[in-house]
């Protein structure tokens, strides 16, 4: 992975302390063959608030724990953002409660209201049972919600982590695409995403790629069409994900690249922990070979 301005590896204190105590899940017979199992999920956690608008990290941690996923991409993650999430490092706190490593990629990183306090940050994150080998906060086109008169411009918040899953290199990307009805910014974001993922794929040949996130568009949306040239929508045919209480749109995705075989995908009936429902995919990673699993 080439050095870039926003390259970093960020592990929670809990994750760092657990590195020796918590090992990756035990290998099965399948691991010793031609493929490796992995459970991977995505969840827009609504800054810790449920569909009722109440901030409840106990409820959200329980919902995440129930997924029993090895890797989880999170969107709408607060880190010392403010009163709505009690000023907590939500990414780090969830990682601590689940005994997982965490990598946080801020979209916004603002000065604190009071000097000496932590920066106010909001973005996306990855929780992982496997050690994070490296992490990058890529820039893609954004229309800021923090500026009075925003214009589309490159901004951070497209997170990537590199893992090694029982010997198989894995690149996990997590994103939150623009929410506006006008698809223009999403179109630019999709173009940026494809360019970045292609570059990262070339720099780590043989890596299995995943793109997780809230795309704020349904699968048939024209602006998403270019993604399906390199990626597969693992959740095709699954139920809607938003809004959580009575979903009518499928806008949350686990997508997979070459060398990944999708076994099962579910949208757990979780109507209260967030305003979105999670998506969970059980997949197999090909150990070698260029073809799709």
From TrEMBL:
Gene3D superfamilies: Endonuclease/exonuclease/phosphatase (3.60.10.10)
UniProt-listed Pfam families: Exo_endo_phos
Location of the Endonuclease/exonuclease/phosphatase domain: 41-276
Record's signal peptide: 1-29
Keyword terms, alphabetized: Endonuclease, Hydrolase, Nuclease, Signal
Gene Ontology molecular functions: endonuclease activity
Identification of the protein by name: Endonuclease/exonuclease/phosphatase family protein
UniProt source species: Streptomyces tendae
């Amino acid at each position: 992975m080439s050095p870039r301005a926003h390259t970093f590896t960020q592990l929670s204190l809990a994750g760092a302390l657990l590195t020796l105590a918590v090992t990756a899940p035990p290998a099965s017979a399948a691991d010793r063959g031609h493929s490796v199992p992995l459970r991977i999920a995505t969840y827009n956690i609504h800054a810790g608030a449920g569909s009722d608008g109440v901030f409840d990290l106990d409820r959200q941690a329980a919902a995440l724990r129930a997924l029993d996923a090895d890797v989880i991409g999170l969107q709408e993650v607060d880190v010392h953002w403010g009163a709505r999430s009690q000023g907590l490092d939500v990414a780090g706190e969830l990682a601590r409660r689940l005994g997982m490593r965490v990598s946080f990629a801020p979209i916004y990183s603002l000065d604190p209201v009071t000097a000496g306090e932590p920066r106010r940050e909001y973005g996306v994150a990855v929780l992982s049972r496997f050690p994070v080998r490296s992490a990058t906060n890529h820039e893609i086109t954004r229309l800021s919600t923090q500026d009075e008169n925003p214009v589309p411009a490159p901004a951070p918040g497209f997170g990537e982590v590199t893992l090694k899953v029982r010997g198989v290199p894995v690149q996990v990307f997590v994103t939150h695409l623009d929410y506006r009805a006008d698809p223009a910014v999403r179109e630019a974001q999709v173009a940026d995403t494809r360019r970045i993922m292609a570059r990262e794929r070339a720099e780590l040949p043989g890596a299995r790629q995943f793109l997780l996130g809230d795309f704020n568009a349904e699968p048939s949306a024209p602006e998403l069409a270019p993604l399906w040239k390199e990626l597969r929508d693992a959740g095709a045919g699954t139920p809607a994900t938003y809004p959580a209480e009575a979903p009518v749109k499928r806008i949350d995705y686990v997508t997979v690249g070459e060398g990944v075989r999708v076994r099962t995908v579910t949208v757990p009936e979780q109507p209260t922990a967030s305003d979105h429902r999670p998506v969970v995919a059980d997949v197999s990673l090909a150990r070698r070979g260029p073809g799709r699993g």
